[in-house]
């Protein structure tokens, strides 16, 4: 007898025996159970937990400093105002007591490698900068969440950033935010509520525009409005009282305004441009695009490199008054994600969020050498992949008849049970890397994270026979005897079933997982065909619902829950890529999805810890029992960082509330003077200085 039938208990087993209609095949179906415990794997490095004001506060300092060459070459010559005039009235001040290696020195470069390619600088309208820190480093957002990995639990709330403080109205429906006063874009133009309102009204709320990470009005709650009170005050109005959850939505990458003085004149509302022209107006070749981030794009060579130089108007300082960042340059070599791991380990690049398990064994071997140039540190199992069936049967994405038939199958519970039972997750994980890294992942919240509850997690164990029986129940049969299951007779003329699987070809891991799904389903007579696209095309296809199935690395909501909470279920028309509203705006949610939406909304609306735990248990059960989506594997990533860098926070995770490139607070990293190798490509230069950017600085 299969081991798992034991979980039925006596009553369940008796019922099974008594059920007259149960055929022999059905009696042998493996019953769902709970997932096995993941193999033991200890995360390396523990953060030093601190309170928010231990890290930083906003205040004026008696004096400010900058690299001597900036004063000499740019201030003394009248090209730039003195540093004190370039900083806001009260800059964000990092406290030396929270800097692992103290106050830093200026100079040096962080050399990144990325696998993406920049499309242009209008991320507000959905253009990608190539990921890997290019966007995180140039965007600053109302709040910030990356560094929360080291904030103590009692104080866990998004960090102030462009919004330096906020108050709730007595009834909790209004949130007044105070923007940092007197901060400037990297070209010296003041940052004000006009930038915030342009982002909101003409990018988030305008249905013709979708920002890079997909923010839509519902990301901030249905019916939410925003208005400017003055240049430095904005006011949110929410339907719910005290929805503190939305503070997480105001961090990367949902509320990071771009420069209105550049983009507003290009927007269709204020120009004769089309939306497409607006989105694509500012190509990567356009240099010195104004940013609020620590470094400004100053050089771009296609398929080669993006060089960013220090932002002379950056609005953060250390408590000795030194304007940040300490590092003068950041480089992004345009290569592949796999090459990022190889180069970071070899020392020809400076860091990697190592996330493709195919590289782990080799990287570990190399890093074990005491003379290795970089440190390597594994975190918790926060990287996970899911197979998402497209559940929109409402015409979204204008599917042809085959696609429509597949989407209807996707909505069939027996079909989804068949798919999940056909996957041997143990072997899927081992095919990526042997050893204790990967864990069986049924879907939903990850084992090892705060809200995970094993007892609420339903796992359909691997069994080809069970999968086949479920497919039979779903009405699929091999009517022409060629070994491939056919569509039901009334669909697609009853021809062989064919499903496409979309995956991001920029990552070996994504391709390997999609190939594994194809192979495992072939064994049970389902034909799945690979549809691999490069990152940029992939994002477009995924976000516009152009897929039958998609394999994709999951977002932070499944790790942190409190962040991007709305994305845990199809809570709005464009929130979940795999289940979007039809052209008429209506959703065709399955009954369990409606319940998931209710649970997620209830979670957002309450602050009560016990209630939140109970809600997430219900969420996990609804997700995994009904197979909202099909989990594949979860495993840890490792942060690789060159040993010459100081101020790297202990236990910095590659992925938690955000990616490592935010978590490690790059603006505070430095390299001691005697260890600076001279990797600068434009020593002692500023963005826009003669010969580099689009013209002189001032
Ligand atoms: C890509 C990479 C990640 C991380 C992020 C940052 O997604 O795969 O490792 O660098 O970019 O945006
Ligand atoms: Ca057939």
Descriptive notes:
The chain has 698 residues and is an alpha+beta fold. It has 2 domains: 109-315 and 326-377 and 639-675, D-Maltodextrin-Binding Protein, domain 2 (3-Layer(aba) Sandwich); 382-635, Dipeptide-binding Protein, domain 3 (Roll), CATH 3.10.105. The chain is built from 22 helices and 22 strands. The strands form 6 sheets. Strands 17-21-16-20-18-19 form a 6-stranded mixed sheet. Strand 10 and strand 11 form a beta hairpin. Helix 20 (591-605) packs antiparallel against helix 21. The chain starts with 8 loop residues before the first helix and ends in a 35-residue tail after the last helix. Residues 1-24 have low confidence and may be disordered. The structure holds alpha-D-galactopyranose and calcium ion (CA). Calcium ion (CA) binds at residues 478, 480, 482, 484, 486, 496.
- Main CATH class of the largest domain: Alpha Beta
Work out the strand percent: 15-25%
Helix content: 25-40%
Low-confidence segments, ≥5 residues, pLDDT <50? 1-24
Mean pLDDT: 94
Cα-atom Rg, whole angstroms? 26 Å
Structure keywords:
698 residues, alpha+beta, D-Maltodextrin-Binding Protein, domain 2, Dipeptide-binding Protein, domain 3, 2 domains, 6-stranded mixed beta sheet, 4-stranded mixed beta sheet, 22 helices, disordered N terminus, binds alpha-D-galactopyranose, binds calcium ion
């Amino acid at each position: 007898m299969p081991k798992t039938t034991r979980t039925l208990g006596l009553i369940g087993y008796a019922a099974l025996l008594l059920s007259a209609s149960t055929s022999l095949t059905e009696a042998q179906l493996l019953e769902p159970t709970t997932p096995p415990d993941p193999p033991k794997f200890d995360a390396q490095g523990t953060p030093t937990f601190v309170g928010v004001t231990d890290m930083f506060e906003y205040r004026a300092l008696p004096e400010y400093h900058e690299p001597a060459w900036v004063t000499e070459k740019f201030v003394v010559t009248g090209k730039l105002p003195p540093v004190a005039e370039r900083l806001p009235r009260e800059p964000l001040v990092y406290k030396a007591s929270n800097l692992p290696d103290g106050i830093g020195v200026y100079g040096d470069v962080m050399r990144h490698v990325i696998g993406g390619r920049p499309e242009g600088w209008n991320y507000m309208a959905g253009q990608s900068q190539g990921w890997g820190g290019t966007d995180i480093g140039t965007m600053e957002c109302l709040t910030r969440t990356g560094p929360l990995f080291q904030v103590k639990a009692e104080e866990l709330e998004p960090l102030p950033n462009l919004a330096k403080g906020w108050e709730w109205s007595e009834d909790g429906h209004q949130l007044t935010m105070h923007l940092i006063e007197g901060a400037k874009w990297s070209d010296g133009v003041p940052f004000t509520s006009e930038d915030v309102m342009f982002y909101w009204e003409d990018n988030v709320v305008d249905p013709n525009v979708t920002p890079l990470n997909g923010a839509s009005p519902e990301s901030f709650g249905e019916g939410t409005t925003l208005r400017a009170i003055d240049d430095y005050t904005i006011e949110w109005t929410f339907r719910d009282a005290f929805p503190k959850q939305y503070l997480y939505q105001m961090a990367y990458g949902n509320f990071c305004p771009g420069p209105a003085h550049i983009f507003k004149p290009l927007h269709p509302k204020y120009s004769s441009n089309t939306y497409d022209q607006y989105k694509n107006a500012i190509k990567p070749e356009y240099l010195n695009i104004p940013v609020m981030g620590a470094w400004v794009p100053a050089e771009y060579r296609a398929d080669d490199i993006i060089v960013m130089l220090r932002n002379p108007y950056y609005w953060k300082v250390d408590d000795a008054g030194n304007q940040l960042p300490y590092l003068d340059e950041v480089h992004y070599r345009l290569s592949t994600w796999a090459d990022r791991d190889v180069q970071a380990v070899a020392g020809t690049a400076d860091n990697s969020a190592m996330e493709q398990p195919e590289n782990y064994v080799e990287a570990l071997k190399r890093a074990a050498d005491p003379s290795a140039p970089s440190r390597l540190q594994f975190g918790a199992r926060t990287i996970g992949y899911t197979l998402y069936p497209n559940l929109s049967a409402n015409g979204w994405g204008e599917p042809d008849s085959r696609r429509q038939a597949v989407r209807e199958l996707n909505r069939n519970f027996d079909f989804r049970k068949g798919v999940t039972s056909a996957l041997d997750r143990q072997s899927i994980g081992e095919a990526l890397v042997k050893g204790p890294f990967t864990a069986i992942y049924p879907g939903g919240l990850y084992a090892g994270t705060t809200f995970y509850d094993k007892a609420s997690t339903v796992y359909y164990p691997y069994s080809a026979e069970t999968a086949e029986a479920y497919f039979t129940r779903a009405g699929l049969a091999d009517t022409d005897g060629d070994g491939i299951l056919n569509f039901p007779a009334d669909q697609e003329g009853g021809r062989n079933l064919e499903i496409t699987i979309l995956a991001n070809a920029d990552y070996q891991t994504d391709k390997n997982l999609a190939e594994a799904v194809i192979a495992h389903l072939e064994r049970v007579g389902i034909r799945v065909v690979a549809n691999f696209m490069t990152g940029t095309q992939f994002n477009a296809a995924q976000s516009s619902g152009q897929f039958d199935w998609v394999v994709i690395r999951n977002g932070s909501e499944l790790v942190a829950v409190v962040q991007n909470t709305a994305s845990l279920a199809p809570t709005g028309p464009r929130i979940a890529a795999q289940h979007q509203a039809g052209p008429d705006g209506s959703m065709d949610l399955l009954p369990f999805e409606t319940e998931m939406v209710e649970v997620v909304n209830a979670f957002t609306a309450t602050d009560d810890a016990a209630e939140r735990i109970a809600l997430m248990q219900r969420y996990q059960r609804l997700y995994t029992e009904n197979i909202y989506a099909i989990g594949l594997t979860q495993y840890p990533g490792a942060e690789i960082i060159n040993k010459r860098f100081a101020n790297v926070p202990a236990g910095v995770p590659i992925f938690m509330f955000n990616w490592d490139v935010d978590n490690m607070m790059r603006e505070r990293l430095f390299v001691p003077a005697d260890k600076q190798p001279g990797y600068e490509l434009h020593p002692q230069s500023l963005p826009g200085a003669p010969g580099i950017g689009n013209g002189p600085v001032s």
